[in-house]
Amino acid sequence: MQVSAIIAEYNPFHNGHRYHIAETKKRTDDSCVMAIMSGNFVQRGEPAVLEKRERARAALLGGADLVVELPVPWATASAERFARGAVYLAVQAGIVDSLSFGCEEESLVPLQQIARILNDKVYSREIKEYYDAKGCSYPEARAAVVSSILGKDCTQIMLKPNNILAIEYLKALQSFKSDITPIGIPRIGSAHDSHAQDDGITSAMAIRGLIKTGQPYDGFVPDGTLTVCREAAEKGSFPSLYSNLETAVLADLRKKQPSDFIDVPDVAEGIEYRIIDAVKTSVSLDEIFDKVKTKRYTHARIRRIILSSFLGITAQDVMSLPPYIRVLGLNENGRMMLKEMKSRFFVPVVMKYGDVKFLDENARHIFALESTATDLYNLSLPEKRPCGTDMTDEIVRILP
User: 163 with 142: CB under 8 angstroms?
Assistant: First the structure.
């Protein structure tokens, strides 16, 4: 059985995602697809617009065979840690032959060259020295150092949105010395986080904008996604809105001191003082984000810091690697994949809450963080849900 892994958020699952899965299967002799998907919070530092099991259902209807969860410490982390955590799960699954991801280059060769340089400790020190000396953002420092080695064309390659994650996936595969084959699928349609529309394909960001403003989006998502969203809306669980959590996040921030941010991921250089000062004079999260933003600290990084603080995620949590594989959904092919994966016992597989008691202390801690994150996510829904649903909601099964 050939298996391809795809790392995604599916926030929500749209026509571009369906194309990516279909193209992956086309290039791999109709391999089975394991989607490694973020849970209820995503890398932008906000809740997903649709609950994770509903997104798993949409992915299965769109061509995926098995959907497993990227735990919240890595799902809400920087691109490097997001990619490293997800690739680690692909490696530890023990059944993955290829890793398919979107990129903006026809060839992976320049991306692989960049990844090798970024994995080199000598060049890592050079990047840190450049970053400290120039006062620029870290991505700018990386691009400058790599371009000095490979040429100026690398700057544009590195800063293209889809290439950023593609390079991180390649870095992780190299650092784990994995024999998983990388497959780059050139992006079609509008650019990442763009509002442009191209023959039924637009970005997830544009679709979320349509959803949140009550505009039609059915032309940009498969019928399966549309059905899942409509059924979720009827149950009062769609769409999730960060604005529903805003007061809770602001209240949490107003209780904090600078010292409370010391152990939060990505906090450095006294940014915690800027956050606290902004909190004291702000009445909205957007106002805080704008006041804290600097040349080095982007909006996305600030959002992730504040969300991690709210969810109780520490730097120590993301310094490790995901300690289990949690299944969110499967079809018949996924069931066979899972059977093969469980026979190898590389890392524990969690199917139900009862499996948690067999995990080690660190894994139980990560699961507890995930459960708490879901409890808080439930407050972002149109009809709020009680605590404990992450332990009781069942795996999505699409079986004969």
Answer: no
In order of their start, the domains of the chain are: 3-104+184-240+321-398 (3.40.50), 109-159 (no CATH), 242-315 (no CATH)
What is the band of 199 on the pLDDT scale with cuts at 50, 70, 90? low
In whole angstroms, give the CA distance from residue 389 to residue 141: 43
pTM above 0.85, yes or no: yes
Helices 109-119 and 161-175: angle between axes, nearest 10 degrees: 60
- The conformation of residue 320, written as its DSSP 8-state character, comes to S
Contacts of 141 (CB under 8 A, 6+ apart): 127, 128, 130, 131, 134
CA 142 to CA 200: how far, in whole Å? 35
Q: Would the pLDDT of 300 be above 70?
A: yes
CA distance 50 to 226: 12
SS (H, E, C) 38-76: ECCEECCCEECCCCHHHHHHHHHHCCCCEEEEECHHHHC
Report how far apart, in Å, the C-alpha atoms of 383 and of each of 79, 228, 241, 333, 396 are.
Answer: 32, 17, 11, 34, 21
DSSP 99: E
Q: Which residue has the tokens 């299967």?
A: 25
Helix (H, G, I), strand (E, B) or coil at 198: strand
Q: Is the pLDDT of residue 349 over 70?
A: yes
Contact 261, 270 (CB under 8 A): no
Enumerate the β-bridge partners of residue 296: none
Other beta carbons within 10 angstroms of residue 218's beta carbon come to 12
